[in-house]
Specification:
The chain is mainly beta. It contains two helices and ten strands; from the N terminus they run ααββββββββββ. Strand 8 and strand 9 form a beta hairpin.
Amino acid sequence: ANIDGGLPYQQWARDLRDQRVANGMKDNPDANCLPIDHTQLHMHPQPRKIVQLPHLIVMMWEGNSGLRQIFMDGRPLPDNDPQPWWYGYSVGHWEGDTLVVETIGLRDDGWLDVNGSPITNKGKITERFTRLNYGHMLVDITIDDPSAYTAPFTVRVEHGIMLDTDLIEFICNENEQSTEFFDP
C-alpha cells in the first residue's frame, strides 16, 4: 500500500508522524491494547469476519477484539458532529457489486498506519469493498482529511478468505504492563 511520493501531509501532520516514528511508535493504539484505525485495520495480519444483515453490516476483527457497525438502512451520515468513535460512524450502500462505506465521527488522535500518520475528527473515510472472485476482495480506502492532508488519497488492500476458520478471542487490554518497557 505505497503511495508514490508519500502521503500529502500538512506540515503539522508530517511533524507528528515523524515524532511518533522517532518515539518508536510506542503510543500506537495497537501496542497499547486499544482499537486501531481503518487503514491499519485493513493491513493488520489478524483475521476479520463480516456479518451481513438486511440493515446492518458488522465487522469483527480478531486483533483487540474490534467491532464495527455499518448502517445499511438508508440513513445519511449525521450532520450534527456525532460522538467520536474509535471506528467512526459508518453508513453504507451498494453501487452494483461494490459496497461503499462512508465514515465520519472519528477520534481526533487517530493513527492511520503503524507509523502514526494522523487522522483528525474532521476526516472522512470512504471504503469501497469489491469482490474480485471467490476468495479475494479488494478494498480501496480513501482518506479525505483537509486538517491533516493537502489532498485526499487512496490506499488499496486485497483480502483473502480463510475457510473453515473462526475468530479466536484476543483480549490484551486487561493488566497491560509491557509498554513501560518500550524503547523510545
